[in-house]
Model the fold of this input.
Amino acid sequence: MHEMLGHHHFMVGDYATALSHYRQVIQEGDANTEVKKRAVVCYVHTRRIAEAVLLFEELLKEDVDCIIRHNQDRYGCPCPEIIDEYECSLRTDEISQSDRIALGILWSFCDVHRSHEWFTEAIREDPGSAFLQSVLGILKDRIAVTPATSHYQSDKGATV
Done:
């Protein structure tokens, strides 16, 4: 029941409510990959980056392809809209470390190359981060076999 309600709220853009349902599914031990991916997006959208990082890292370790090969059309992925909104809200001279990580996470669902760019920016601020080193290692391996194309389209209709 919680999974279905979470998906409903996710699809209508009520990420805080969706997250509460997804958290319940995760706590009950019934979370599949899709629930976890959507929970990561909800955590980022609600600016709960530390929690997003933990779940994102878990997903990467379980199955990196569930993120890198994510089919946004099939799952009604709101990442393009969230990315646009998130990036537009930032002032380039005031991008925080958590913003870099959040954008790295969101871009991982749409474009592994852009994700790598944001995580590279993040590791410059914190070169000792085991999380960032791990993510960049995984992404580097995927970039080697992933063409530099994106299935993300900006709000202007151009593929980014």
The mean pLDDT is 85.
